[in-house]
Amino acid sequence: MKIQPPIQLGQTILIIVDSAPDFFDALTAMTPRLPDITHRYFTLFCCCPTPYWEHGGADTPESQDDLKAAWDEEETELSRAERCAERAAAILREAGVPESHIRTIHTTADHPVGAAMEEIKRGGYSGVVVSQTQHDLVNRLLGRGLTDLFRHTPQVEVWVLEPAAERHPIA
User: CB–CB of 4/31 below 8 Å?
Assistant: First the structure.
């Protein structure tokens, strides 16, 4: 796991929260390496994909069951995202970041990578911390794809947390 962050993450840092255990290990390792961490502002961004389900228009017991299953799936994912955000916030607080310097954004989106990019553009962040497991987002931020040559990517310092090993995400 790489734990050396870029020198210039700036004062307003967006952390794309991941549910992988290595994410939290790397975040814990990162915090002591950020100078003046108590004076920085952090936004924890949690985006859950919208569950897909198809409704044929019938008001049958089966369609009601499908609707309930989709709702339950979304609630489960949002609950996991809330737990992950709280864990990330706790890591920041333990490192000395005041509660008033931590905010959390929870959202659902059909395209989580696009939602993260919109937040980066909207939020005016100076740095982004993202897990290597979010490879599509990492590629967009670093302009690695052919289509990225034609997209506007905000000028932010990117620190990619690389997992030490494959593990199962937090349930």
Answer: no
